[in-house]
User: Fold these one by one.
Assistant:
Number 1:
Amino acid sequence: MSTTIRTTCPYCGVGCGVIAARPDEAGDWVVTGDPDHPANFGKLCVKGSTLMETVGLDGRLLHPEMDGRRVGWDSALDRVAEQFSATIAEHGPDSVAFYVSGQLLTEDYYVANKLMKGFIGSGNIDTNSRLCMSSTVAGHVRAFGSDTVPGCYEDIEQADLVVLVGSNAAWCHPVVFQRLLAAKTRRPELCIVVIDPRRTATAECADLHLAIRPGSDAVLFNGLAAHLKGEEAEVECGVPLEQIVTFFSWFAETEKTVTLWSQGINQSTSGTDKVDSIINCHLITGRIGRPGMGPFSLTGQPNAMGGREVGGLANMLAAHMGFDEASVDRVGRFWTAPRMATRPGLKAVDLFRAVSEGRIKALWIMATNPAVSLPEADLVRAAMAACPFVVVSDCEADTDTARLAHLRLPALAWGEKDGTVTNSERRISRQRPFLPAPGEARGDWWIISQVASRMGFGEAFAYAGPGEIFREHCRLTGFENQGSRDLDLSGLEDTDYATLAPIQWPVRQPGRGTARMFADGRFYHADRKARRVEVTPRPPAALANPEFPLILNTGRTRDQWHTMTRTGRSPRLAAHAPEPSLAIHPADAARFGLADNALARVSGRRASAVLRVALDAGQRPGEVFAPIHWTDRTASGAVVGSLIDAAVDPVSGQPELKHAPVRVEPFTAAWHGVLLSREAVELPRDIYWSKAAGQSHSIWRLAGAQGQDWPRIGRDWLGDSGEWIEFLDPNRGHYRAARLVDGRLEGVLFIFRWATDFSPDWVAAAFGRAAILGEERATLVAGAPPGGDRGSDKTVCACFQVGLSAIRAAIHDHGLTSPAEIGAMLKAGTNCGSCVPEIRAILAGESAKERAA
Ligand SMILES: Nc1nc2c(c(=O)[nH]1)N[C@H]1C(S)=C(S)[C@@H](COP(=O)(O)OP(=O)(O)OC[C@H]3O[C@@H](n4cnc5c(=O)[nH]c(N)nc54)[C@H](O)[C@@H]3O)O[C@H]1N2
Ligand SMILES: Nc1nc2c(c(=O)[nH]1)N[C@H]1C(S)=C(S)[C@@H](COP(=O)(O)OP(=O)(O)OC[C@H]3O[C@@H](n4cnc5c(=O)[nH]c(N)nc54)[C@H](O)[C@@H]3O)O[C@H]1N2
Ligand code: SF4
Ligand SMILES: [Mo]
């Protein structure tokens, strides 16, 4: 019998509806976009469409593990409860902490927060949303009196001007961005302005791109505010005056304006001020709460919003209440809490500092990888290593963070877990399980409730399932609310959880969601008015200097998610950006002796990383960009968080992750290599390596400073047994070898003298075959594919696997001039559309070449 389950994508805050279906019990599950989900109407980006490539059980944590050994749930849970209780008894409630995540479901988050703030009696629960959304939360609260996202996705389609500030939505919120582009196709007069120091894929689609000096957004928006009020203002932010004049006049003249922002604004030591400088421009013009307009923060994680709703941030309580006396009392009564926290706890950066100083002695980390994602990641690791008791709940067995845990608890992953999430437009959707719980993995809500009960709080945590938790959360949002708080889900208290359809909060009456807030002009400050916060622009905490002359900006690539624990499993997703890279302006590359595709060592004050150089004229000179996705599991040294000092916004506590002074120099290598292997390979740390997923193998790119005895090293890495086919050219320093066992290809190693983007796809394909026979074997070490040199190719369209050279050839051979024509011929860009901005850039590049020729 065929089965269809409606659920929600576990990646970005767009919150796309997903349908998982299989034809019969024996068939494979297939995911597609849910045509009825109001976030995506059937669309998915490439990450969403490859979800089934990421749900395998390889590498999953399937049993609790204590000090590296498998234990039963009872002993694991008892251990957490005992250790936390003993620490609290001896050192007080503030000596323990939870560090949680916007990738938990609302129900998980709710019980974690309830346990810490109501029963342990400390505010020490913070979340990775501190690194993500906290400046927006603080900015909202200052301006509106509540953490409210005013608008909805439809506003973006109905606007006449959409301004994206510090947002690479083309890659990070692809389906919303596609909705914007589709609206622009219908109404070409819809104008798009992108404000980002880099020429991103998003900027590629803009009518106007302001490549401002990083950190100068508040100068720009203060200038805009002055312009809107009819004052003269001098605006210096590193772009030509005409561009600023154009932007200001477009904004002033266009009633229906939406301003979208994300991490280019939030991740800053003045993030809260920047958020308010944007909101001010909407308040001055009254452009808020009405169709087609409003300030709009795009949230990152699938449940960043849900976490804010239940009080996952150390400085919030629950249900959008703060730590004022009345709220503490109200929540305490609602929970019949024995020991309410009465003041905010430590924010992420301070929390880990407290761990390093021994003030926090028991730490429970859930659904986040702080050993990679926090600034000063090197110090975070040291802090964890020194902490007397670290628990990590994760789906994966081996993450940089899990390696530092005393106790590892196996959590259910997407497809297995059950609960709700809230997307960027306040829409609550269900995540529903369709896969069986593997091994002994359990839902996070269950794990937390079990610990709570073993700490003696059983009655308050005796939940039969997530539905019960959700209803309690809804009741709390409505408890003594009477219109005083924005978050009100009382209309969902009696809802049928199993069939709950996507709905935007507040839901005050059953079945009635709310698309837009503040339509009545009433806000949540006591006087019901909004506040325009006076903002004095401040520069970033650290500027370029003679020792660290470049500014490192960090962020995301199109097809990977954070620390790659899930997207890293998909070969299709790996193709777009297989290596950790450093985008650098050609002039800077020349200045620091870096060639395209060579390796660079990038150093901060305490640590360095080795990254592949990618020349990029879209970088501003003096600034480089590196993705955040690589860890010690996937590269020899590419954790960019260890290059960044943890300077934080004084209001929000959000760290400045987009602006770190660094130094770059060539990483001089005597050899470069590519290794493909069916089995895991342990590589030494003193060489450069990075690892990517292949179909039935992994691919490592390698480089090292010293020449090697290759036949011996090859056997060390790939295994000695079986049959070896080798080719050694000592003069040129080339070595190529393949290892087969019973005719089946197990591994290959290619060594060159020079850096190369050599990508042996014919060899990769050979891993899919049962046996490689006769003459064919020689092609494995041939250094070029049978039948000629295709060279290497960069994947542009991950959905249909269309490479750069095919697109270039189609442009030349058929005189194609638009993404639509290329789509018609090659299919590239016709599924999720995420690569359309790149296709545009390729078209522009080719026509520029033609003009030059
Ligand atoms: N593919 C993919 N998508 C994702 C994620 C992922 O890991 N991969 N993660 C999700 C999460 S959790 C988040 S938070 C979002 C993040 O989504 P975004 O914020 O859109 O992504 P980032 O790449 O972090 O940064 C956005 C842009 O800020 C720019 N920027 C840096 N400094 C400044 C500045 O001073 N001013 C301005 N105006 N811009 C600046 C950067 O150049 C960058 O292009 O993405 C979500 N979506
Ligand atoms: N330099 C720099 N650093 C950054 C950023 C940046 O732009 N620049 N961005 C910051 C931002 S915005 C974010 S959001 C963070 C993200 O950073 P992290 O949260 O550290 O990154 P993830 O890889 O998403 O980690 C999630 C972990 O939870 C596990 N997991 C997934 N689902 C579940 C579940 O249901 N239960 C449990 N228990 N575990 C689960 C995954 O396997 C993974 O190990 O990075 C921040 N760090
Ligand atoms: S845009 Fe992509 S990653 Fe984001 S929710 Fe939709 S399918 Fe998932
Ligand atoms: Mo995020």
Number 2:
Amino acid sequence: MTTTPDANGFFGAHGGRFLPPDLVPVMDELTRAFERYRDDPEFLREFDYYQRHFTGRPSPLYFCANLSRRLGGAKIYLKREDLNHLGAHKVNNTVGQILLARRMGKKKIIAETGAGQHGVATAATAALMGMQCTIHMGAEDIERQKLNVFRMEMMGARVVPAMSGQRTLKEAVDEALAAWVQDADNTYYLLGSAVGPHPYPMMVRHFQSVIGREAREQILELESRLPHTVIACVGGGSNAIGLFSAFLDDADVAIQGVEPSGRGLTPGDHAATLTLGTPGVLHGFSSYMLQDEHGEPAPVYSISAGLDYPSVGPEHSHLKDIGRASYVTASDADAVDAFFTLSRTEGIIPALESAHALAQAMRLAPTLPADAVILVNLSGRGDKDVAQIERMLRAGEISAPR
Ligand SMILES: *Cc1c(COP(=O)(O)O)cnc(C)c1O
């Protein structure tokens, strides 16, 4: 199955470029550079070097013997992206894009971040490559994610607060784009998920596809068969498309993305974009989107800051339209339950984002035979969420399962 977008960057009805005219030549330059270097042997050699020695790839595929026994039914395997340097899958993409930026002769990196995870991965790779790094972050998010702000600054990045509007991710993106246009000759915009105008969704998928390639090879080696179902959480959709891309041609493998239903499927209480959204344009691309009657992004919410985005990568919208992937939801409570369950049965504390995918695997496993395999992308580790969980426990907002 081909998943390359058409010449205008459309995956079926979704994607493309919806940009002010001054950004079009910049996107064209980026597309040309990506096409030129993606399969260049020297580029691949360097990318592979940093994946091995900086990121720590390949990441293991781990069989959850205890959890699988406890649930009964299918065997649950985890792709351990939580063991990457910096604790999540995001570094796969920042290393790839920063090597490209260097090839393009750029000296400065600019990025936006919501919860700070992409900002931290960007700051780290910019430090590694000796590039100047500016991270735009909503003033509200800076307050909420102080630790990540310190981490970015420790690695030499400048964190610029976005003071307009709601002072969160959307405003940070607006301000980062504006700053980029000012100095596009010297600056590279490093986007953190499989979203944005063409070529970003295609490029981020490419750099994250290592997840699926490794996982497919690993499960064939361990089980001599393909998984019954592969599952990943969907925020912008980069860890999910990275996993899914290797299984799209395997018609017998079911593909499931998991979105946050938060406190419930009422407006403002969730970020279930593919479940409840309608086609719309945000941040330079079209996709399913949670929007109000004026086409403005609707307020979104999830317990996990990495999943509360009102749009979604265009390739996921296409996979939904053609029925190749299905998208389901897990609530805050489901994610918290999965968070504690994995911690206690396997000694692995998952990121709250990844816990959404795990929650769906825990629902599915008991309905399948014992020889079936479920492969879950554990997109990140939960250390970053421990303080939040502790606070919510103390406030009585959640309770630990017995
Ligand atoms: C950022 C993040 C996500 C969500 O981003 P995607 O682009 O949808 O993958 C999921 N898990 C973790 C651990 C993250 O840091």
